[in-house]
Amino acid sequence: MPPFLRSLAAFALLASAGCSLAPFQAEPPPPAPRTSPAGRGPVISEPPPVTSTMPTEPDVQAPPPSVPVPRERPKVAPATLSPASSALVNLSQTQRKKGDLPGAATSLDRALRIEPSNPLLWIEMGRLRMDQRNYAQAEAMGRKALSMAVGDSHTQASAWQLIADSLRARGKNPQAQEALDKARELGGK
To answer: H or E element: which one contains 49?
Structure first.
């Protein structure tokens, strides 16, 4: 590096360092210790009481514990498929009817790449897994759809129906009945 640039860089460094420091100020000397009136040593005083500067919260009365307060979930419009996903689902259903389950899975995988957070696609994939006799995966697909369909009672009912079908196929009838009850409660079949 040429000497001119070195000195310019050093000057810039010193100038920027000097700008970031506060001007020099001498600290005030510490206060001299007070002595007792009898002159027997320093006076020990207690620190002032600490007071909170936080604002106090207003008194809020909670409802009595015997009265349950229902929490309403916001209603959400029913899930719909995009035109591209809808075409792929239709293709998948045609392939399923013809017995081409691997082809149907490929079509649904393509639709899921387009809309990975659409619960209807996960339900459709779960129905395909039921056709493939993969009941545990069908239940998992139903639960995934259920988690994505918060507030959409129609889609939730379809997801619970899928879960009930997968549980029944595995012989878990009490759990299947509970899932079916939830589907009916939400307005399903």
So the answer is: none
In 3-state terms, what secondary structure has residue 144? helix
Q: What is the DSSP string of 75-143?
A: P-PPP---HHHHHHHHHHHHHHHTT-HHHHHHHHHHHHHH-TT-HHHHHHHHHHHHHTT-HHHHHHHHH
Domains and CATH numbers, the chain: 83-185 (1.25.40.10)
Q: At what angle do helices 153-169 and 119-131 cross, to 10 degrees?
A: 20
> Cα–Cα distance between 149 and 79 in angstroms, integer?
8
Whole-number Cα distances in Å, 158 to 140, 162, 164, 179: 14, 6, 10, 11
- Whole-structure pTM value: 0.59
- Token pair recorded at residue 176: 């299947």
Other beta carbons less than 10 A from residue 15's beta carbon: 9
Over its length of 189 residues, how does the chain's per-residue pLDDT go in tens digits?
A: 566 566 666 656 555 555 554 555 556 666 655 555 555 555 555 655 655 555 555 555 655 556 555 555 556 677 888 899 999 999 999 999 999 999 999 999 999 999 999 999 999 999 999 999 999 999 999 999 999 988 888 999 999 999 999 999 999 999 999 999 998 988 744
Whether the CB-CB separation of 162 and 142 falls below 8 Å is answered with yes
